[in-house]
């Protein structure tokens, strides 16, 4: 018994259609996988910074941004040592610890701005000169 296979013109076309469809599915799956990997990588970012000013005490201009010139830790590079801005690289809850000290009878106020909007008071000192006020603030960014 002899088995013969004849070439049919409709075989190639049908296979090409199937291969094209599978190729499109693979492209779509690869795009989804890449997006999911990017989200996973972003979720695994560790963020922490510790910064202070080398002068103690130091003067801050009215309505000025405090720029700490000594950065001892900056995991995730979220704190910009040039601008004094912290940019949250991923959504989450962040904790900030602050200290401020009134050096004259006028008192001191310090605010943290979220998304560039009006400040959240984190430190207010109207005590006698030399009094230190410390605060902790939990902040959940609305957008990152």
TrEMBL record:
<keyword id="KW-0964">Secreted</keyword>
<dbReference type="Pfam" id="PF00386">
    <property type="entry name" value="C1q"/>
</dbReference>
<dbReference type="InterPro" id="IPR050822">
    <property type="entry name" value="Cerebellin_Synaptic_Org"/>
</dbReference>
<protein>
    <recommendedName>
        <fullName>C1q domain-containing protein</fullName>
    </recommendedName>
</protein>
<dbReference type="GO" id="GO:0005576">
    <property type="term" value="C:extracellular region"/>
</dbReference>
<feature type="domain" description="C1q">
    <location>
        <begin position="42"/>
        <end position="144"/>
    </location>
</feature>
<keyword id="KW-0732">Signal</keyword>
<dbReference type="InterPro" id="IPR008983">
    <property type="entry name" value="Tumour_necrosis_fac-like_dom"/>
</dbReference>
<dbReference type="InterPro" id="IPR001073">
    <property type="entry name" value="C1q_dom"/>
</dbReference>
């Amino acid at each position: 018994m002899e088995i013969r296979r004849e070439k049919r013109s409709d075989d190639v076309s049908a296979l090409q259609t199937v291969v094209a469809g599978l190729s499109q599915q693979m492209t779509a799956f690869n795009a989804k996988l890449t997006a999911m990997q990017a989200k996973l990588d972003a979720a695994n970012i560790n963020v922490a910074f510790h910064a202070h000013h080398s002068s103690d005490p130091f003067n801050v201009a009215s309505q000025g941004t405090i720029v700490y010139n000594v950065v001892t830790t900056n995991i995730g590079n979220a704190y910009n040592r040039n601008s004094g801005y912290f940019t949250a690289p991923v959504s989450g809850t962040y904790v900030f610890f602050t200290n401020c000290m009134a050096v004259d009878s006028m008192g001191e106020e310090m605010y943290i701005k979220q998304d560039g909007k009006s400040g959240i008071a984190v430190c207010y000192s109207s005590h006698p000169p030399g009094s230190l006020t410390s605060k902790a603030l939990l902040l959940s960014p609305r957008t990152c």
